[in-house]
Amino acid sequence: MSFVDDSDALTIALPGVLSWSRPRRERGRVRYPAAYARSRDGWAAVVAHAVARRNWRPPPAARYRVTVTVCGGGRRDLDRVCTAVLDALQAGGAVRDDCLVDALTATRAHPPRGTPPNTVAEVVMRSDDRAPRPSLQRQPSDVEPPSKSEEQEERDAHR
User: Fold this and answer.
1) Under 8 Å between Cβ of 8 and 126
2) Angle CA 63–15–113, to nearest 5
3) Which runs of E-coded beta strand occur in the chain?
4) What is the rounded average pLDDT for all residues in the chain?
5) Boundaries of domain holding 102
6) What CA–CA distance (Å, rounded) separates 73 from 108?
7) Is the dihedral of CA 105, 101, 98, 15 positive or negative?
8) Exposed/middle/buried for 78, CB within 10 Å: 0-12, 13-18, 19+?
9) Which end of the chain, N or C, is surrounded by fewer C-beta atoms within 10 Å?
10) What are the angstrom distances between the C-alpha of 15 and each of 21, 46, 81, 156?
11) CA atoms within 13 A on the CB side of 57
12) Residue 1 counted as domain residue
């Protein structure tokens, strides 16, 4: 899979470390916990600002590679932090839809002494003109499976 060179990356420093929280059903509606929704919306605003500042405009067919670096944040599940990052990237306009992310890499590190916990997200658009989307269809194998009569002949020969 090909991606454009890293100089075309959108790198966003997000304050703190946010862990995705499962939505809850409340009075017939599905809602995220208030603290998560506030923090996620704050991250989305930071993403939207970075998108506007860089004039980042993903084409409609864009696919993405996302790298998440978490500095600090205690014992939060890394996969839930990535989900929160992807939610914020989508809400802020850095990616059209998080299901279009083809590669996701996550790393956790200790922040330097005196530095508050933070999360850094890097988004790289895949260049569709240089690399076609991989096909998910099964490819025929080089060797054809034996026909039913050949299978029967082999069984009969070994008896």
Assistant:
1) no
2) 120
3) 10-15, 24-26, 29-31, 64-71, 101-109, 118-125
4) 81
5) 6-157
6) 9
7) positive
8) middle
9) C
10) 17, 9, 13, 71
11) 1
12) no
What CA dihedral angle connects 15, 114, 54 and 78, to 10 degrees? -50
Radius of gyration, CA atoms only, the chain? 23
The pLDDT, as a whole number, for residue 7 is: 54
User: Cβ distance 80 to 106 under 8 Å?
Assistant: no
Distances (CA, A) of 67 to 81, 120, 156: 12, 8, 57
Angle at 97 between CA 93 and CA 102, to 5 degrees: 115
Q: What CATH number has the domain bearing residue 109?
A: 3.30.1330.70
Does 66 fall in a domain? yes
Q: For residue range 95-119, what is the model confidence (pLDDT) as tens digits?
A: 999 999 999 999 999 888 898 999 9
Helix/strand number for the chain, H first, E second: 3, 6
- How many domains are contained in the chain? 1
Can you tell me whether residue 69 is helix, strand or coil? strand
The rounded Cα 109 to chain-centroid distance in angstroms is 19
Nearest C-alpha neighbor of 154 from the set 41, 145, 3: 145
